[in-house]
Design brief:
By secondary structure, the protein is α+β, with helices and mostly antiparallel strands. The chain has a single domain, classed as Alpha-D-Glucose-1,6-Bisphosphate, Chain A, domain 4 (2-Layer Sandwich). It contains two helices and seven strands, in the order βαββββββα. The chain has a seven-stranded antiparallel β-sheet, covered by helices on one side. A hairpin with a 3-residue loop joins β4 and β5. The termini are far apart.
Length: 142
């Protein structure tokens, strides 16, 4: 499953990058994230860890995201492994006048035990991504 969107921010790329790369901020704009926290100290770097608790219907899933690529202020790539799903969040930023274009792609890979839940997970995934996009747009332009 894949979801890709572009959001425009009125903020400069450095500011947008710092906000999005600190992935524990996701709780402010993604309604499916009920809690988020840093699992390490110090500046963001390759290998940095963030834990997100995500609501999937009546169930909460813990996802530990690790930074796999970091090219400030242009790109950050984060990956998580959960019980039913593996996720890859790729964020690319492009200067756009005084603001920034954010190209955000989420790719979800179902684990074998999640296959029977595919139709349900696909619907939840699309809905969650659309709501997160709305929240991200509002957050980056507040």
């Amino acid at each position: 499953m894949r979801y890709r969107t572009t959001v425009r921010s009125n903020r400069p790329p450095d500011e947008v990058f710092d906000y999005l790369a600190e992935f524990s901020n996701t709780v402010a704009w993604d309604p499916s994230v009920t809690r988020a926290e840093r699992l390490d100290a110090g500046p963001l770097a390759l290998g940095s860890l963030r834990r997100l608790i995500v609501s999937l219907g009546r169930r909460e899933v813990t996802l530990d995201y690790r930074v796999y690529a970091l090219d400030r202020p242009r790109h950050v790539d984060l990956r998580a492994n959960g019980p039913l799903i593996r996720l890859r969040d790729s964020i690319y930023l492009v200067p756009d006048g005084a603001g920034t274009l954010v190209d955000y792609e989420v790719t979800a890979f179902l684990r074998a035990m999640g296959k029977p839940l595919t139709p349900w997970l696909r619907r939840r995934f699309r809905r969650a991504c659309a709501l997160a996009r709305e929240g991200l747009s509002l957050e980056l332009n507040a």
